[in-house]
């Protein structure tokens, strides 16, 4: 069992030993560290109580962790706007709407049900930067908490309206045309992996005039399959799209910030191509620049250049993508794992925005979803990982590879990425799991797979495993 402390938040498995897992004690400790960080940050700047927005996904441990976190903030004298069952992007948009000082999303995203996490936001509803994350970890290590006296405790304000508000905000986006979509009478299958996406995605679709076929849309937190939206986990929806003769299928992860489509032929549209297709539509209407992370497909670069824009790649991590998007005034960006970041809405990955833009794009095309997918540059990715052990010196391994391939086109801002003429490999230590991730891309699946196998072998040789 594992507890991972990083600048992006605190993630761990439920149960077990304090300090080694996400136990109730750890949930309180890191919620207190975050609340203390906000109090220090606002000292002498803001009078009166601070305010934090809190929401959770539907995973089984959610209510327990939620109660611990909310009441820890109350104990620090911080008011809480409690969204209850919600999504990551919904909490993100709620923070500035509530004029709050921060937000916490209780979700382990795509991780299995034994995991949960505290994902931490600033007053803009955006993820904390590296420096802020380090400060919170320092506060937690010192346990430098000063709780409020009884007359100064915070209050809890429950607000269950924000998923509906989120839908309204998405439908109001200038490039979303619900009226046009309604004329097409689409039929769509939705896999909500028994979390909050099973509520909010069908509601959005129905308001856009789409007939919805629900699959795993009860928010029980009992995930019916591995919640990471990869092909090997999605056999049920691929089959159901064909059986229902649906126009396409939609898959989200438990906190609804990753988005994958199933084409009308029952095949994966490809997580990497979620961002590509939506960017193609957005750039056709509002030309500009794009950003994705280093582990994302070259296809976004090709589409951006087709529309006269400039593409740049950031280090992996949503906060890094957002930072580079702001620097380059990117119109749209995100991550190749199906994360869409559309600044016209907010600087956070948002499947709701992605669904609405994709439906509008589809309604403007005289093509099926499978035909749209076939129209894009064809790249194939292989995503692999190696489990870490305490004996492995990851920095040494990556440094050795850097030296070996120093004559190639190398990028080392986040692990090691080697750009070969027709393919690339990216090797990095995960921020959220004890593994080395190995991403490759090539013009065929076989070439991507072969490149991955080659580097898995080289990594193991250098590491001595």
Automatic annotation (TrEMBL):
Domain Alpha-D-phosphohexomutase C-terminal: 400-457
Protein name: Phosphoglucosamine mutase
Domain named Alpha-D-phosphohexomutase alpha/beta/alpha: residues: 8-145, 176-266, 273-379
Gene3D superfamilies in the cross-refs: Alpha-D-Glucose-1,6-Bisphosphate, subunit A, domain 3, Alpha-D-phosphohexomutase, C-terminal domain
Coiled coil regions, renumbered to chain: none
Record organism: Flavobacterium ardleyense
Keyword terms, alphabetized: Isomerase, Magnesium, Metal-binding, Phosphoprotein
GO molecular function: phosphoglucosamine mutase activity
Cofactor(s) this protein requires: Mg(2+)
Enzyme Commission number(s): 5.4.2.10
InterPro entries, A to Z: A-D-PHexomutase_a/b/a-I, A-D-PHexomutase_a/b/a-I/II/III, A-D-PHexomutase_a/b/a-II, A-D-PHexomutase_a/b/a-III, A-D-PHexomutase_C, A-D-PHexomutase_C_sf, A-D-PHexomutase_CS, Alpha-D-phosphohexomutase_SF
Family: Belongs to the phosphohexose mutase family.
UniProt xrefs under Pfam families: PGM_PMM_I, PGM_PMM_II, PGM_PMM_III, PGM_PMM_IV
């Amino acid at each position: 069992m594992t507890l991972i402390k990083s600048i992006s938040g605190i993630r761990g498995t439920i149960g077990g030993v304090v300090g080694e897992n996400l136990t109730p004690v750890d949930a309180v400790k890191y919620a207190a560290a975050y609340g203390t960080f906000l109090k220090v940050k606002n000292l002498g700047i803001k009078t009166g109580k601070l305010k934090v927005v809190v929401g959770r996904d539907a995973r089984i441990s959610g209510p327990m962790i939620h109660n611990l976190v909310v009441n820890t903030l109350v104990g620090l004298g911080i008011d809480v706007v409690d969204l209850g069952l919600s999504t990551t992007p919904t909490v993100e948009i709620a923070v500035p709407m509530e004029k709050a000082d921060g937000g916490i999303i209780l979700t382990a995203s795509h991780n299995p049900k034994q995991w949960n996490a505290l994902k931490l936001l600033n007053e803009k509803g955006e993820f904390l930067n590296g420096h802020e994350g380090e400060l919170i970890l320092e506060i937690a290590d010192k346990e430098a908490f000063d709780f409020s006296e009884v007359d100064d405790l915070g209050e809890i304000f429950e607000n269950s309206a924000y998923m509906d508000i989120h839908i309204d905000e998405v439908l109001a986006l200038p490039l979303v045309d619900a009226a046009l979509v309604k004329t097409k009478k689409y039929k769509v299958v939705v896999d909500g992996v028994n979390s909050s996406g099973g509520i909010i995605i069908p509601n959005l679709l129905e308001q856009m005039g789409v007939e919805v076929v629900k699959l795993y849309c009860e928010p029980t937190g009992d995930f019916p399959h591995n919640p990471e939206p990869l092909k090997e986990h999605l056999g049920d929806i691929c089959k159901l799209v064909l059986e229902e003769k649906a126009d396409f299928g939609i898959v989200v992860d438990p906190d609804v910030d990753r988005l994958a489509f199933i084409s009308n032929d029952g095949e994966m549209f490809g997580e990497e191509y979620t961002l590509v297709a939506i960017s193609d539509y957005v750039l056709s209407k509002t030309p500009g620049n794009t950003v994705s992370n280093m582990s994302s497909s070259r296809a976004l670069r090709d589409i951006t250049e087709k529309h006269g824009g400039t593409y740049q790649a950031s280090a992996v991590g949503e906060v890094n993508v957002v930072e580079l998007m702001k620097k380059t005034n990117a119109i749209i960006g995100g991550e190749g794992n199906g994360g869409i970041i559309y600044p016209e809405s907010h600087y956070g990955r948002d499947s709701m925005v992605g669904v609405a833009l994709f439906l509008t794009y589809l309604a403007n095309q005289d093509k099926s979803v499978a035909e749209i997918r076939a129209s894009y540059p064809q790249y194939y990715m292989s995503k692999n990982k190696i489990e870490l052990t305490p004996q492995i010196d990851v920095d040494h391994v990556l440094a050795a590879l850097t030296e070996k391939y120093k004559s190639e086109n190398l990028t080392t801002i986040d692990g090691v990425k080697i750009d070969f003429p027709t393919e690339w490999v990216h090797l990095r230590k995960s921020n959220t799991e004890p593994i080395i991730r190995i991403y490759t891309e090539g013009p065929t699946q076989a070439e991507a797979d072969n490149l991955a196998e080659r580097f898995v072998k080289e990594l193991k040789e250098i590491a001595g495993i």
